[in-house]
Fold these 2 entries.
Entry 1:
Amino acid sequence: MRLAMLRTQDGTTKVAGVGLDGRYIDIREIDNSLPNSILEILEADDGLNRAAHAVAQGLVKGPFLEGTPLAPIARPGKVICIGLNYRDHAEETGAAIPTEPVVFNKFPQAVVGPDDAVELPAVAHEVDYEAELVVVIGKGGKNIPKSAALSHVAGYMCGNDVSARDWQKGRPGGQWLLGKTPDTFAPTGPWLVTHDEVGDAHQVRVQLRLNGQTMQDSTTKELIFGIEELIAHLSQLFALAPGDLIFTGTPPGVGAARKPPVFIKPGDVMEVEIDGLGVLRNPVVAAK
Ligand code: MN
């Protein structure tokens, strides 16, 4: 199942199912017990199953909605990111292959959705793209064993771990936060695609195009730490909650590793495409 958050023509925000033909299904007209956000559906008892029933009922006859997709989870409780998690990307940056996951975070307010502008802060001069598979937690928990980890996954989205390299490297004190969390630096979407529809998320192609030119093209087969391992590792230390996001790391081809380096500038358009998860497109502008 694919779920989206829509801004409809009358300016309201509505949760919708997404048909394979791209039409948006008004699932709350079919089941009015469903809450009006993906996050609340994840938090509700049996919410994803109820939403799936509504989507199945509405696929052919609707009712349908018109609108533009927003970030599927606009304000996740946590945005957790994994660094250097592709063998081939670790090699291109000259870093050693990590022996345990490299973990950092972004503030939830960095999240934006499809077609939202990524705003370059005036003080950041080396801003880069990173195409990433984003895991969305469905069922929360602590000390989740690897064997049960996938039952805590609601699904997946495309993500772009936008990164100001001049704030990430070496300042302050080696912490990555300031380079990773400027406002708008966490585009996600266009939909949440549930785990059952994606199947094995360790077999999907991940691409990034900059102004139509392919800059990253790899697959999640290259992940050093898989999804089960990440969930087990993180939840030893803190509880995961419904709607938490895990950016799983980026493949090779980032701008900073190119010779000469490529950084994004106003007027650029970034597109992240992941098999089965759609295309996440974001224009780049200078922050006002
Ligand atoms: Mn990243």
Entry 2:
Amino acid sequence: MSDTAIVGGSWPMSVRSPGKFIVFGEHAVVHGAPELLVAIDLHLQVGVATAPEFQLNREPMARSANPYLARGLERFWPSGAPVAITTSSRIPRAAGLGSSAAFVAALGAAFGSASGGVARDALAQSSFEVERGAQGAGSPGDTSAVVAGGCVALNSPSGTLLWETTVGDARWTVRRVSDPRWVWVVAYSGLPRSTATAVQRVGHRLAEPDGPELLQRFREVATAGIGAWIREERTEVGRLMQENQRLLAEVGVSNPRLEALISAVAPVAEGAKITGAGCGGSIAVLPQPGREAEAVRRLARAGAVALAVRPSTRGVDVVGSG
Ligand code: PMV
């Protein structure tokens, strides 16, 4: 597991970050409820080298076109010399699979390493601040998962405490939980969406009179789900994913396309639900044992980009330097 610091290094440097999916608790986590996330073996790689002028993927860098890049450089490289940054990624963008968190954490790891090294709790905090600044809303779930690697639970009493992440008066605990070593399937619907818009929509829904009761149901499902996860009760994890999906539909972030994908895979799945902000993006599927390939085929036939994935034990890290 990546519980060790990012060590010091020099340019040219390559940094690799996993993507992630969410098993339980997206949206409700923004309001303090528990969440369970898994870093996955779909990676984004960032290269950084010295250069006469700032460049991104061999073009002059237009920071204004990418708020994550602009805020990342401002935070991680405030008075830095020009650098050339290159990116390559297998994580679909704006798909709920952690591409923006992976990009921000990779930038933070690269500049942190070039500045002598950075502790993982500090990198998790600064990556969250950059992502939230660029996005205008959200929790530290995605950035925690890609910095820590493996499986992490936010705001849960179970697991081993890694760190706490804060913004203003809000505070989230981040804990390491065990990996039951199941193979998962994620499927991108092809519909990009904005996390900030979806978070706002759910915020409005939870401000209605029955909002507190709804949030309490999210809390109960995620708490029970994390317990079942730790006991490796696969069928129960799948059942609770379905229940979590019903709650996500109730707060308005599902749509007919996502429901069609969930129905297409249902005959071979223990459970399937939106992963991430919803309103498009991706679903995460826990297949019945041995039915992973069939789950991928069913989702591909339904028009999704479907991939079998495994947890990535390694969080963001330098993979080449000097
Ligand atoms: O950006 P996404 O699609 O991975 O969504 C993250 C999950 C939310 O709970 C909707 C937002 C957040 O920052 O926690």
